[in-house]
Specification:
By secondary structure, the chain is α+β, with helices and mostly antiparallel strands. The chain has helices spanning 3-25, 35-42, 70-76, 128-139, 147-153, 186-190, 200-203, 207-210, 258-267, 281-285, 315-324, 327-334, 364-373, 397-409, 422-430, 452-456, 472-483, 487-504; strands spanning 50-55, 84-86, 93-95, 98-103, 109-114, 164-169, 174-179, 220-226, 230-235, 249-254, 272-274, 290-294, 299-305, 339-341, 380-385, 413-418, 436-442, 507-513, 516-520, 523-524, 540-541. It contains 18 helices and 21 strands. Helix 14 (397-409) links the parallel strand 15 (380-385) and strand 16 (413-418). It comes from Sporosarcina newyorkensis.
């Protein structure tokens, strides 16, 4: 074929192709192609390597050391790594960035041997000095910037109760941590998501800059954050663990409404969804295109009572609310049998749980009697804060709040339901602005200390203790339990503390749930973790 005819034929084929493409792209698709469509096109459409993960709320930061909420850790566990890891489905301590560790006989010195050849996403070397700089950054902070460091290590650098004496580098790949006193859960504490190791090069640019531009050593790297919409992370091509991750990209998509999130899963808009309503579990199980995941339960949902605000400064009033609320109806109505009534502030799966304590029974008449003892026989008015996002321990905060509101009305308490955007809700509750607030906790390390001390000790007022409850006896028990290495003795101390907490009633414990997630049938390698922070490096589509 001559050159002129060849050119004419090519032109005709180009016009035909253009017409076909125009027909494909026109018509009903007014919203354009989805992120998944674009990524399929990028890879030739032969293999899906982008996971779209629908969740109930946005992260509040991408610097894990600055927050205490799970939506942040859900993302950052895939960007960062800790010195030690937890097991795939439990909280046993495993190697992480530290391949080996050795405690001294007196429990005061820990020596960690780091993996060699690991780099942060910005090219900075992961070495002993980088680890030291991370600990120095946290220790030189305060409860506003690093609230969880305060909770787990007794304060900051110059505080009397600060447990860490020093963190030093012994050569390039050996880190030595010395403690002022033994801390039984120390190894579990440093395996927690918020103590992930960051690039010093990145965080030295400033905390505010860093929480929007995170840099870790993890299997994925940060790409983009569109507030209240999506967070995108991509494969770390230089990841130090061979063959991982298996996905090229993960998009975390905020879909606050549970039903809308389920519909997005059903329609194929997303591949994985958390916060599945227990009532919708059967719908997923019956769909041959989907699969249902159950997260091992290690949580508690509760109604917190701010003890510094009247009338919740009176024990009788706090006990009255415990008697007034029908927990069984809440569980039957909203958890579909995938939860149990909470008797204590920590779940039965945690060592040290006091099985002898029973939940306050539903007894409106007893509640009225206690209110009369407190001089409030005519009731009172209060604000009831309802969670604005679904959480593993509270699938629908607004509806649960409506049940509580009705229960309280039956004993003469007029509760006005209020709520705020999630970050604002947490910030205001932390400051003690709520009368009563719905919240919960998913354990971060599987230790009783992570529930009782972190959430209900005076050391953590202004960080994780939103009720502002303080008690000299429980404080003494918590500190003694932290330094007690005999497991049976530790458990007995925690059981004593739970008896006091039951009597003082700073919470109305509601439920321990089995959180549900739904995914497409092709998804493989996804293992829900009891901490709520799911590592996605082994996930792929079969």
């Amino acid at each position: 074929m001559r050159k002129g005819k060849l050119w004419s034929f090519a032109l005709i084929m180009l016009l035909v192709l253009s017409t076909a493409l125009a027909a494909c792209s026109g018509g009903d698709d007014k919203e354009g192609s989805s992120d998944k469509d674009k990524d399929a096109a990028d890879t030739g459409g032969n293999e899906n390597k982008t996971l779209v993960f629908g969740r109930g709320g946005d992260s509040t930061s991408l610097d894990p050391s600055r927050v205490t909420e799970g939506e942040t850790f859900k993302v950052t566990v895939n960007l960062f790594e800790t010195l030690l890891n937890f097991g795939e489905q439990d909280t046993t301590v495993q190697p992480g960035l530290a391949k080996e560790w050795e405690p001294s006989e007196d429990g005061l010195t820990y020596t960690f041997q780091l993996e060699e050849g690991v780099k942060f996403h910005d090219g900075t070397d992961l070495n002993a000095e980088a680890v030291v700089k991370n600990f120095e950054r946290w220790a030189n902070g305060d409860a506003d910037t690093f609230p969880y460091y305060n909770s787990m290590f007794g304060g900051f650098k110059d505080d009397e109760n600060h447990i860490i004496e020093s963190v030093t580098a012994d050569g390039d790949h050996t880190v030595v941590i010395k403690l002022k006193r033994p801390q039984a859960p120390f190894l579990k504490n440093i395996a927690m998501s918020m103590f992930a190791i960051s690039s010093p090069t990145a965080f030295e640019k400033g905390d505010d800059e860093y929480e929007r531009n995170p840099v870790g050593t993890g299997p994925f790297k940060f790409v983009e954050w569109k507030p209240n919409e999506t967070i995108t992370i991509e494969k770390n091509e230089d990841y130090w663990q061979d063959g991982l991750p298996k996905l090229d990209k993960v998009i975390f998509k905020s879909i606050p409404d549970n039903s809308a999130r389920l519909n997005s899963l059903l329609s194929g808009e997303i591949d994985l969804a958390d916060g599945i309503n227990p009532a919708d579990g059967a719908k997923i199980e019956d769909n041959d295109k989907l699969q249902l995941f159950e997260r091992p339960s290690m949580n508690v949902g509760y109604l917190g009572l701010t003890v510094t605000r009247e009338p919740f400064d009176k024990k009788e009033v706090r006990q009255a609310l415990n008697y007034a609320i029908d927990k069984q109806t809440i569980i039957d109505s909203f958890f579909e049998g995938r939860a149990e009534i909470a008797n204590n502030p920590m779940p039965p799966s945690i060592s040290g749980y006091n099985e002898d304590i029973k939940a306050y029974p539903y007894d409106p008449e007893k509640a009225k009697e206690l209110l009369k003892q407190a001089g409030l026989e005519d009731g009172f008015e209060m604000e009831l804060w309802a969670m604005p996002v679904p959480r593993p321990y509270m699938p629908d905060g607004t509806k649960v709040a409506e049940v509580i509101q009705s229960n309280l009305a039956d004993v003469g308490i007029k509760a006005k339901i209020v709520s705020y955007e999630w970050a604002t809700y947490l910030e205001k509750a932390e400051k003690g602005d709520a009368d009563a607030f719905m919240l919960g906790w998913t354990g971060d390390n599987g230790d009783a200390d992570n529930f009782l001390y972190v959430l209900l000790d005076e050391d953590n007022i202004g960080s994780n203790n939103y009720t502002y409850f303080k008690n000299d006896e429980t404080h003494k028990l918590f500190l003694e339990a932290q330094t007690e290495v005999d497991e049976d003795k530790r458990n007995e101390l925690y059981k004593q503390a739970q008896e006091i907490l039951h009597e003082e009633a700073p919470w109305v414990p509601l439920a321990h749930s089995i959180p549900l997630l739904g995914g497409v049938q092709e998804l493989t390698g996804f293992v829900p973790h009891p901490t709520g922070s799911d590592l996605l490096s082994n996930v792929e589509f079969k």
